[in-house]
Task: inverse folding
């Protein structure tokens, strides 16, 4: 009986050279071997009976080498061939194994050896061959002991690293399994029920079967058990995180509906049913007390942006800020353009924050706009108080005057004949200002001085006038009027000697910038001291915010007031705590480019805002349950303009001229086009080079049309400038690298050419193609491949047939296998477990149920075996790795 942490060198009967070989690659202990699960198994029980047969699927054979030799075709190219027959010799067939350009194989393989080979058999004119088979020398090689380990059983095949060999690993695993006690580790999963599919299984058993299964059925059962265990761990972490978020408490964001109504009125189209449904789901989440954690999932062009904006408006209506984060600068800028187009007319302030620039609409533009509106009855008058800077201008005017939405005002009014208010009267006024009008304005600061009152307020949206076009705000005049008459009434009741309490007139001043606001704030809170009413460290009783717990400095007290209601940016936002305040919702566009870790960071910045992540990646349900396990999912499963067709063709490069002529025709009709160059896996620099060269070519081909160039090596300003000109129609065509892959939305662009389309995955091509077909015009996508590249022509044919992202993703999956689609997941620790991740929806659900149950019983995962699931960051990294 050996322990798990024993060094391999000390495992009984394990050959020393195998232990040394594995130790060099980091497999040093018994546990290392146990956890290095095979990525597949070969059924080597009855190979004798299998004839060599050409086919599409790989097969496995036990063979004897009868002849070997190198054939050279001049230079260094050549092929090493080994002719083999069945090891039993019962079948007279011959098979030739071929290795191209690997002459050293002659030193590895020799006549008389017995091999196990695994590969696809091809038939060329009656000659059967296998190219680059997986092979293993089972007899006649360096170590051919322990024959029963390698053949005559369901044999594990391990993923190798460095100098490791199949045999060394298998021998080690064999001896480790022999020497370990029956139950060598504690179960993580709850004990399976006696009737279920996992009846009788324990973790130890499953791991044993995972290496050397007794039958294919047992192997499958073990594999599922271990997969369940892995999902369980994942779901435990996710469910814990989710519980924590819920406990941290969200805020109900209900809103007035005013901004949304106006937004939809201005929108040039109706939401599709799918968009509406998703939006309802989102709004329902926002209105609930628990924080929203939702994934908005929809194919390219399904119209996620509008839904996102509508979600943001709900937050703003509820008096909060909305943040939208995009994966690239270009995309952030595009969102900002849309937001300015759609949201600023509603009176909202939109700030853009990307790596290279910061634009906070500081109100100046708004001032200019409002200046154009005639202000009946207003007249500019004298400077009134000492804190004013040179740009401060006070207007003394009769209300009502021009009312600006979301305006903040500094207001002052005095008592009639400047008589002094007694303390009880001052209290009445402060209480009234603070409490009685809470939903009619937002209050930043107020001070009731003996003979006058200062306030810093922002009138709120009024709910009274449904049919109106623009958002209707409470009028400053009305607010002041009712405030004054209410307090006057109360003060008189409390014994004021005169009928008149207040002067008729008030001073008000529109706050125009953050600095302005801060200055007024400081003026108000400093006023009692300034006037000598209180000493330096003393509190003045009729000041708000006061010292009792409320933040007093302008920094905090006014921040909400200055923060823009809409903030759009890239990951730069993660580093800008300053811009983000009172954030009600965070929307993350194109989630997969961000990663879960970053999402967590952003969420930590605000205090449990609602979170909506948007993605166009067609994610199978299983994956949404795992990677996005803590998210609810809304799917926009309908395109807004089903009528618009995208015609896609795969064409050989030689047709480039024809294509150019076609593009020219489209341009003459007023349309625009993209020409994409890409070198997958090459550096950005090379890619930029290809696009630059392409740009020269296309400029000639399309002359005198204007052709722009866009690539990742350009500066942010240059990129933005190019996009601006393309959007404005000043450029007829845009030669670009894949920087345009996500999100770009120029409805007038109807043509897309993709060079070397063969290099792309289908999913990426689909993303790229999503840049066209966004307007009212039929669009055309041409995928150029090498002239005789039949393989890619076939592979890309699906693009000609459908523009349904899910269908394309499925095809991609079918062709590449989940491993490639999931990227790193496959090369991770235990590839076996993820092997059929995509088919295991039921298992994921089961894991989820188990995890919830565990947490109900053991919320802090006290049970020692579960300690591994307590840590948080691992999850994020892993999930991120899975999506890269
Ligand atoms: P994606 O889901 O890829 O982010 P977008 O939000 O960019 O898609 O929307 C694609 C285009 O469709 C945009 O030009 C947008 O204005 C338009 N659009 C969105 N919703 C509708 C709709 N309901 N009816 C018509 N056009 C719409
Ligand atoms: Mg988008």
Result:
């Amino acid at each position: 009986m050996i322990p798990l942490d024993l060094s391999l060198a000390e495992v009984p009967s394990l050959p020393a050279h195998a232990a040394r070989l594995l130790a060099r690659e980091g497999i040093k202990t018994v546990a290392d071997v146990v956890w290095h699960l095979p990525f597949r198994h070969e059924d080597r029980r009855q190979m004798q009976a299998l004839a060599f047969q050409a086919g599409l699927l790989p097969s496995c054979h036990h063979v004897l080498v009868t002849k070997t030799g190198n054939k050279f075709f001049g230079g260094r190219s050549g092929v090493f061939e080994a002719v083999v027959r069945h090891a039993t010799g019962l079948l007279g067939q011959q098979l030739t194994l071929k290795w191209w350009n690997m002459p050293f194989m002659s030193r590895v393989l020799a006549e008389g050896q017995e091999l196990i080979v695994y590969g696809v058999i091809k038939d060329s004119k009656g000659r059967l061959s296998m190219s680059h088979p997986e092979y293993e020398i089972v007899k006649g090689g360096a170590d051919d002991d322990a024959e029963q380990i390698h053949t005559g059983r369901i044999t594990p095949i391990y993923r190798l690293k460095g100098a490791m060999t199949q045999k060394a690993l298998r021998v080690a695993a064999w001896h480790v399994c022999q020497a370990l006690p029956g139950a060598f580790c504690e179960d993580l999963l709850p004990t399976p029920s006696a009737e279920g599919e996992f009846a009788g299984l324990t973790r130890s058993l499953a791991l044993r079967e995972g290496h050397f299964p007794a039958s294919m059925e047992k192997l499958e059962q073990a594999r599922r058990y271990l997969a369940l265990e892995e999902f369980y761990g994942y779901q435990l972490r996710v469910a814990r995180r989710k519980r924590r978020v819920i406990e941290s408490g969200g805020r109900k964001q209900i809103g007035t509906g005013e901004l949304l109504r106006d937004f939809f009125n201005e929108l040039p189209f109706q939401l599709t049913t799918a968009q509406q449904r998703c939006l309802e789901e989102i709004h329902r989440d926002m209105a609930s007390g628990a924080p929203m954690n939702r994934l908005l999932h929809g194919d390219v062009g399904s119209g996620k942006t509008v839904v996102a904006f509508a979600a943001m408006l709900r937050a703003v209506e509820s008096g909060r800020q909305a943040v939208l984060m995009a994966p690239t600068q270009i995309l952030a800028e595009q969102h900002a353009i849309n937001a300015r187009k759609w949201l600023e007319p509603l009176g909202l302030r939109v700030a853009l924050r990307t790596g290279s620039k910061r634009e906070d609409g500081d109100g100046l533009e708004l001032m200019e706009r409002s200046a154009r509106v005639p202000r009946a009855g207003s007249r500019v008058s004298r400077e009134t108080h000492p804190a004013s800077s040179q740009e401060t201008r006070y207007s003394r005017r009769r209300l009502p005057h021009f009312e600006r939405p979301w305006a903040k005002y500094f207001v002052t009014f005095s008592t009639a004949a400047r008589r002094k208010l007694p303390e009880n009267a001052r209290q009445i006024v402060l209480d009234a200002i603070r409490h009685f009008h809470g939903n009619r304005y937002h209050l930043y600061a107020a001070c009731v001085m003996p003979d006058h009152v200062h306030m810093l307020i922002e009138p709120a949206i009024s709910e009274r006038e449904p049919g109106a076009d623009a958002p209707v705000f409470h009028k400053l005049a009305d607010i002041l009027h009712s405030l004054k008459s209410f307090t006057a009434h109360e003060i008189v009741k409390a014994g004021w000697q005169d009928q008149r309490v207040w002067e008729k007139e008030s001073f008000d001043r529109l706050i125009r910038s953050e600095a302005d606001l801060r200055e007024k704030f400081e003026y108000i809170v400093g006023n009692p001291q300034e006037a000598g009413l209180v000493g330096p460290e003393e509190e003045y009783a009729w000041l708000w915010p006061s010292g009792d717990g409320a933040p007093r400095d302008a920094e905090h007290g006014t921040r909400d007031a200055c923060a823009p209601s809409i903030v759009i940016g890239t990951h730069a936002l993660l580093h800008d705590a300053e811009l983000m305040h009172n954030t009600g919702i965070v929307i993350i566009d194109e989630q997969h480019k961000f990663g879960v870790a970053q999402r967590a960071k952003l969420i930590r910045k605000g205090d449990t805002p609602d979170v909506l992540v948007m993605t166009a990646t067609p994610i199978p349900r299983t994956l949404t349950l795992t990677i996005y396990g803590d998210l609810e999912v809304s799917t926009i499963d309908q395109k807004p303009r089903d009528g618009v067709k995208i015609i896609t063709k795969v064409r050989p490069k030689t047709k480039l001229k024809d294509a150019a002529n076609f593009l020219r025709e489209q341009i003459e009709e007023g349309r625009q086009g993209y020409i994409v160059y890409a070198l997958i896996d090459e550096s950005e620099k090379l890619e930029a080079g290809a696009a630059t060269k392409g740009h020269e070519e296309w400029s000639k081909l399309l002359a005198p049309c204007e052709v722009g160039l866009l690539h990742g090596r350009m500066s942010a300003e240059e990129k933005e400038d190019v996009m601006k000109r393309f959007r404005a129609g000043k450029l007829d065509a845009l030669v670009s690298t894949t920087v345009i892959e996500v999100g770009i939305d120029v409805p007038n662009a109807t043509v897309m050419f993709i060079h070397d389309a063969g290099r792309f995955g289908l999913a990426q091509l689909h993303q790229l193609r999503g840049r066209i077909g966004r307007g009212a015009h039929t669009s055309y996508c041409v995928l150029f491949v090498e002239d005789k590249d039949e393989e890619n022509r076939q592979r890309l044919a699906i693009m000609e047939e459908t523009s349904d992202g899910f269908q394309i993703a499925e095809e991609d999956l079918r062709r590449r296998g989940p491993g490639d689609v999931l990227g790193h997941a496959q090369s991770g620790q235990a590839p076996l477990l993820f092997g059929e991740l995509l088919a295991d929806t039921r298992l994921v659900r089961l894991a989820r149920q188990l995890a919830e149950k565990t947490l109900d019983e053991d919320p802090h995962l006290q049970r020692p075996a579960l300690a591994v699931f307590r840590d948080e960051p691992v999850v994020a990294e892993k999930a991120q790795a899975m999506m890269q």
Q: What stands out?
A: The chain is about 35% helix and 20% strand.
